[in-house]
Design a protein that fits this description.
Elements: E1 3-9, E2 34-35, E3 41-42, E4 46-50, E5 53-55, E6 57-60, E7 63-101, E8 104-106, E9 117-120, E10 125-128, E11 131-133, E12 136-140, E13 143-152, E14 157-161, E15 165-173, E16 179-181, E17 186-190, E18 199-200, E19 210-213, E20 227-229, H1 235-238, E21 241-250, E22 255-264, E23 267-275, E24 282-283, E25 293-295, E26 298-305, E27 312-321, E28 326-328, E29 331-337, E30 343-346, E31 353-359, E32 364-372, E33 377-385, E34 389-395, E35 403-410, E36 413-420
Parallel strand pairs: 2-4, 3-6, 4-7, 5-7, 6-7, 7-9, 8-10, 9-12, 10-13, 11-13, 12-14, 13-15, 14-16, 15-17, 15-18, 17-19, 19-20
Antiparallel strand pairs: 1-29, 1-36, 21-22, 22-26, 23-24, 23-27, 25-26, 27-28, 27-29, 30-31, 31-34, 32-33, 32-35, 35-36
Length: 421
């Protein structure tokens, strides 16, 4: 039986765009990571995952640590990469390397980002009381919220990509043109830009793709070539398009893509692009202008790619403004292939109780939805996977007879199985 596995790839930094360089390289994969069960060690090169309490860990160059729960305390980042999805982070000495935020990271205690590159990826959120940028902050489709002061020091830099957003109460800039937007537009929103709290000792940027959102009470000087919006409450109103979601629903033939926008400013149309290698994209649609419908004032768009066959495809949205400029969405990967043993459903056909069996290294929250082939949802259930082997059961005796698609989300991977009742 053909099954479809799809997952979101939250990396858009490697999208090719003429005339621009990349903010940051693509994130390393956490697939196949080795579970860490003890601390008090210096890691060798390789990929590791944390789902329990770990302390006194040193992460050198060549080592990648993926946090999906648990805790990391009293540790050192010495040239390696820490990928944060969830868990507790404290007392981290960030000496060099990368911290990649893919989940929501809020005020890690006794942790500074002075000497490391912090990359807030698509879907990631970094919440801080204050933020001093002495190295590099990359906001690649993610969001940074600072309740007090954000300060870019002379050695610091900000790179905005794929409509990444920074919301801060106050802002100070001591670098010269150290804020850029290198793959598409990004936004800096300053809630209280009053004189004395917000000042730019040097020009902010040479890029008009850096959008600066101000409430109109005070406009600081030295904004450089930034595109400035006054009477602007937050980045949502300054960005050309803000997405609520972008996802895929496999059909009997092809793949249906659906996305919802929460706001559109000077927007003309979308074009759906597809790739076999996530690098070389070609359009598969014409101009997508008319939404499929609206929900609570939000526009919903749909497109079905009937050319999808038994391969892995990568999709993205190209968004075109009224002035001809463009921006890209995150990348969505869809793999159409044969049944794997990672996730099995039995019995099939089912009568009363459906068992979902996992044999995967990933742990974390499981979200399950059961829908018929028209897309109507009948059941939903969540669980917590703590070990490699895990079984989850669904009571399906009340479902009418017919075919159903069972969608299982584990981390940022999605598994879809067809079941007959």
């Amino acid at each position: 039986m053909k099954t479809i596995i799809y997952f979101f790839v939250l990396l858009v930094t490697f999208l090719p765009k003429s005339g621009f360089t990349q903010c940051a390289p693509p994130a390393p994969s956490c697939s196949g990571c080795v579970a860490l069960t003890t601390g008090n060690q210096t890691l060798a090169s390789g990929t590791y995952c944390i789902t329990t309490a770990i302390s006194n860990l040193t992460i050198p160059s060549g080592a990648v640590v993926c946090m999906s729960g648990g805790s990391l305390t009293n540790s050192n980042l010495n040239g390696g990469t820490l990928i944060y999805n969830s868990g507790s982070l404290s007392n981290l000495n960030s000496n060099s390397g990368d911290i990649r935020v893919q989940g929501t990271l809020s005020n890690p205690s006794n942790t500074s980002f002075n000497n490391v590159r912090v990359i807030v990826e698509n879907g990631g959120v970094l919440n801080m009381t204050s933020l001093d940028i002495n190295s590099s902050l990359v906001v690649d489709g993610g969001t940074v919220n600072v309740t007090n002061l954000t300060r870019v020091n002379s050695s610091g830099s900000i790179c905005l990509a794929n409509m990444g957003q920074i919301h801060t109460q106050y802002f100070q800039n001591n670098g010269t043109n150290r804020t850029t937007a290198q793959t598409s537009k990004g936004c800096l929103s300053i809630a209280q830009p009053q004189n004395g709290q917000t000042f730019l000792n040097n020009p902010l940027t040479t890029s008009p793709d850096v959008l600066v959102c101000l409430p109109g009470t005070y406009t600081p000087s030295n904004l450089g070539s930034a595109t400035v919006s006054t009477n602007c409450t937050d980045c949502t109103t300054a960005m050309p398009v803000t997405y609520a979601y972008f996802r895929a629903q496999p059909l009997e033939t092809g793949v249906r893509l659906e996305w919802q926008t929460t706001s559109e400013l000077n927007h003309r149309f979308f074009i759906i692009e597809r790739s076999l290698n996530a690098l070389d994209f070609s359009p598969v649609s014409g101009e997508v202008i008319d939404p499929f419908g609206t929900q609570n004032g939000r526009k919903i768009y749909r497109y079905t790619d009937l050319g999808a066959r038994s391969e892995t495809y990568y999709y993205r949205l190209k968004q075109i403004d009224t002035d001809g400029t463009m921006a890209y969405s995150k990348i969505l990967a869809v793999s159409l292939g044969e049944q794997t043993t990672a996730v099995r459903l039995f019995p099939n056909p089912v009568v009363n109780q459906l068992t979902i069996a996992f044999e995967t290294a990933e742990t974390g929250i499981i979200d399950i939805e059961v829908a018929d082939l028209s897309g109507k949802q009948w059941l939903s259930q969540s669980g917590n996977k703590t070990e490699k082997s895990h079984n989850q059961t669904l009571q399906v005796q009340s479902l009418p007879k017919g075919f159903y698609l069972v969608t299982i989300r584990l981390g940022n991977r999605y598994f879809i199985r067809k079941v007959l009742k």
